[in-house]
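## Example pair
The file below holds two records. Each record gives the amino-acid sequence first, followed by its structure token line.
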Amino acid sequence: QVQLVESGGGLVQPGGSLRLTCAFSGSIFSIYVMGWYRQAPGKQRELVATIGGSTNYADSAKGRFTISRDNAKNTVYLQMNSLKPEDTAVYYCNARSTYRNYWGQGTQVTVSS
């Protein structure tokens, strides 16, 4: 059974940076497309970025966020720079293969002065 454990969230001032980490276990990491999604209060969960053979970013993340993965460490990262208050949300790690889709428990990111 795949397990995803996020870390790295917290409170940061506007313009600041955070790096989220998602540790993957329970299967072959390299076969999964990994992604970060977020959900703000009262809103639907939305894509932030994915990484498989290539990377894909939401328009809101382009130029500010960078997704990366280390297949040797079974870990995916989300480097977030120039954070804005509207980036405040619970950020979820996702692992997707042809037949499976897994979610982490989420980590809170709050951007506020």
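Second record, same layout:
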Amino acid sequence: QVQLVESGGGLVQPGGSLRLSCAASGIMFRIYAMGWYRQATGKQRELVAVITSGGTTNYADSVKGRFTISRDNAKNTVYLQMNSLKPVDTAVYYCNIASTNYWGQGTQVTVSS
């Protein structure tokens, strides 16, 4: 069956960096666009970044210039490099197979001093 497993979250100080990973199984990974979403406490889930099968990327305005989404089709993995983190980036981060209802379990990112 389809499975998405996120990792790499944690506690980081403002200005710090984290790299999230999402390992996919049960799908032909290379043909799918993949997305990273986040949900802060009390807020709706929002799109952070998306990468197409061809490697085209798009970002939410709030993370442009700070976050980078990438993929390694040989490893069936999508990444989210997060730099210059701010407290407002605190949320549970989820990966998603675009246009499907397949989601990972989420990984908590907390930005705090």
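Notes on the second record: The longest strand covers residues 18-25. Strands lie at 3-7, 10-12, 18-25, 34-39, 46-51, 57-59, 67-72, 77-82, 91-97, 107-111.
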